[in-house]
Specification:
By secondary structure, the protein is an alpha+beta fold. It has a single domain, classed as HIT family, subunit A (2-Layer Sandwich). Helices cover 33% and strands 17% of the residues. A hairpin with a 3-residue loop joins β1 and β2.
């Protein structure tokens, strides 16, 4: 997708759409979420358009985390929150609803009602065999990626 082509985050990054900006540099912009899940909900967004972490260079994802970490202390002091979640959703099934990668900083408060919940039937201890099999599949995919690059 071309920059600004129906992407609200590209429009914000380019200064063509309003946002309550808390931080900006040459690579990212951080602003208050228009539809906050909790008080102080903040987004860190790269200025360059990437759909999500599946097509975003690792250094960009790392920089989102670096800026998020830098903003976490000030956000905590400004909101008085007790904790914080960092979250990136990748694709609709994971909760992504804006098709431009972004890191959520979600201040957390006792009783705020938000949280990640285990699916029904999940949460039991996995066998070492199942864990080792999945680890082996992932290792093979990492090796395949390295061969391609």
């Amino acid at each position: 997708m071309a920059e600004g082509s129906n992407c609200i985050f590209c429009e914000i990054a380019a200064g063509r759409a309003p946002a309550s900006v808390v931080y900006e540099d040459e690579r990212v912009i951080a602003f208050m979420d228009l539809f906050p899940i909790t008080k102080g909900h903040l987004l860190v967004v790269p200025k360059e358009h990437y759909r999500n972490a599946f097509d975003c260079p690792p250094d960009v994802v790392a920089y989102l985390a670096q800026v998020g970490t830098r903003l976490a202390g000030p956000l905590r002091r400004a909101t008085g929150c007790e904790g914080m979640n960092f979250h990136i959703a990748n694709e609709a099934v994971a909760g992504q609803d804006v098709w431009h990668i972004h890191l959520h900083l979600l201040p957390r408060y006792t009783g705020d009602g938000f949280g990640f919940r285990r699916a029904p039937g999940s949460g039991g201890r996995a066998s070492r065999q199942i864990l080792d099999e999945m680890a082996g599949r992932i290792v093979a995919e990492v090796a395949a990626d390295e061969e391609e690059s």
